[in-house]
Amino acid sequence: MNGIQAFLEVLVAGETRYLFGNPGSTELPLSDALATDPRLEYILSLHELPLLAIADGYAMASGRLGVACVHISGGLGNAMGMLFNAFREGTPLLIMAGQQDRRLRFQEPAMESDMVAVARPWTKWAAEINRVEDVPTAVRRAAQVALTPPTGPVFLALPVDVQLEPADGLDLRGPRIPDRRVRPSAEALAQAAALLVEARAPAILAGSRVTEAGGVAELTQLAERLGAPVFSEMQTSHGRLPVAADHPLYAGILPQWAPDIRDRLAEFDVILVVGMNLLRELVYRGPDRPIPDHARLIQLDANPWELGKNYPVEVGLLGDPKTGLAELADRVAALQTAEHVQAAADRAAVQAAVSAADRAALSEQIASQWDVRPMTPLALMGALARALPPNAVVVEEAATTHQNVLERLNVFSDATGHFAHRGWALGWGLGCAIGVKLAWPDRPVVALLGDGAALYGIQGLWTAARYHIPVTFVVANNAQYKILKTSAGVMGLTHVPRAGYRGMDLDDPAVDIEGMARSLGVEALCVTEPDALTAAVAGSFSRSAPLLLEVPIER
């Protein structure tokens, strides 16, 4: 048994199935060990950016540890944008990189660097293993740290000589994750329940960590008992849906800008915040805080850092979202009188009517644009919505195209089928969709991508082709960085538009996305009609290979 074999043994004992990698000279001992080890499937990527995004998507969907093997220094550097995304998401990833032989380190050999210092700011834990005897302990610790709430990525560097050094008597047991269902204190739950029951107009702000804790049913039950609308996180940290989009109490995402958030929440007197970042804004829009001054906050999260981080809370609940929501719902039910129950029903009826009216207005707006050419973003989204079955999964990285239309049309009856950007390092969506499909092979997976975002991680198409991973990639092509033009307007900038948005257009020369896809082994089509897009997407779900659909949209 040598060091790299011990590394693999502990991973296998922890039920790891895939290694996502791009090998280099300092990872050749890993390649050698895998050559005779059929227990792990090595998924090759052409570049570390899509590689880490694939591992990210797999870990988010499966709930298991994602393991990514990158090359020394430069390879880690290539992966850093996606590592930042995983850090913002709290994805349980183990990133491993080979390090130069210790016998060369003093000479400052080629490619050697302090990778631990590079990785540390965007990981929960980062270390270099300098004794073969420590390999099993380090791998166990890394997995346990990554998978214990608040979950997140970790990094290990393994020098070549440690990978190859033999050792006897190693403890090769797998990681053991502690029970994560930690309940908040009974006293705090009682205070929170009393506040919610007596609220005139309660609301719930819920984020990705509800879904990732398996707490959608518990959140739904609490919302129904209170008749409280459920808002998901604002666009810049939207991530996963906390409740089914077709539920009458789902009120959509919070507005993008602070003044609009304040206006939207003005009617509520008690607000429960659970499993979300309060708040992660993109652009400064004025001195007023987005949370109304009169609103009393209750916050539930497994991460103590999030409790009261930006806004004072009336009650802070430290614990697992699923467990805390279940007990909170029971306590609310025990305190409610007949008058409380009727008030909750009245509130629920109002929210259901608002949601239905929004859905009807949106459908009419889509219909009015159906014959506009080039296709409008709304028509594209309407065509996509028609094609998706109830168990479909959509990974969104098309910030100015999707406009949350799929949610507003009630497409996601299964909240787990929604993945959106949280870190905003571009190139994530294409690879993430591949990883999600590996985790959920029986569910249709669509990657909805902007052209700019797709071009950051386009090499990931080769991996989808090589391993016959049938993801449907829909690229909305407006030949520009539209989000930058929009943000420039929000910030009140004047010279940028007068100069023709210099550096924000992708049209001279035009990028042949279809041709790029074919060169990487993926069949590609250009679709210009909404009905044709619906048919192409629906038909793609019976395929055993990936398909890319390029959709030119209005500029």
Provide tags for this entry.
alpha/beta; Rossmann fold; 555 residues; globular; six-stranded parallel sheet
Secondary-structure-derived class:
alpha/beta
Radius of gyration: 24 Å
Tally of extended strands?
Answer: 18
Content of β-strand: 15-25%
Question: Can you walk me through this structure?
Answer:
With 555 residues, this protein is of the alpha/beta class. It folds into 3 domains: 3-164, Thiamin diphosphate (ThDP)-binding fold, Pyr/PP domains (Rossmann fold); 186-355, TPP-binding domain (Rossmann fold), CATH 3.40.50.1220; 369-552, Rossmann fold (3-Layer(aba) Sandwich), CATH 3.40.50. 41% of the residues lie in helices and 16% in strands. It has 23 helices and 18 strands. The strands form 3 sheets. A 6-stranded parallel β-sheet has the order 2-1-3-4-6-5, with helices on both faces. It has a 6-stranded parallel β-sheet with strand order 9-8-7-10-11-12. Helix 3 (48-62) crosses helix 17 (428-439). The chain is globular and about 75 Å long. The termini are far apart.
Brief overview:
Helix content is 41%, strand content 16%.
Secondary structure blueprint with pairings:
Elements: H1 3-13, E1 18-21, H2 28-34, E2 41-44, H3 48-62, E3 66-70, H4 74-89, E4 93-99, H5 115-119, E5 125-128, H6 135-147, E6 154-159, H7 160-164, H8 186-198, E7 202-206, H9 208-212, H10 216-226, E8 230-232, E9 250-253, H11 258-265, E10 270-274, E11 296-301, E12 315-318, H12 321-335, H13 338-368, H14 377-387, E13 393-397, H15 399-402, H16 405-408, E14 418-420, H17 428-439, E15 445-450, H18 451-456, H19 460-466, E16 472-477, H20 482-490, H21 495-498, H22 513-519, E17 523-526, H23 530-540, E18 547-552
Helix pairs in contact: 1-6, 3-4, 3-17, 8-12, 10-12, 14-23
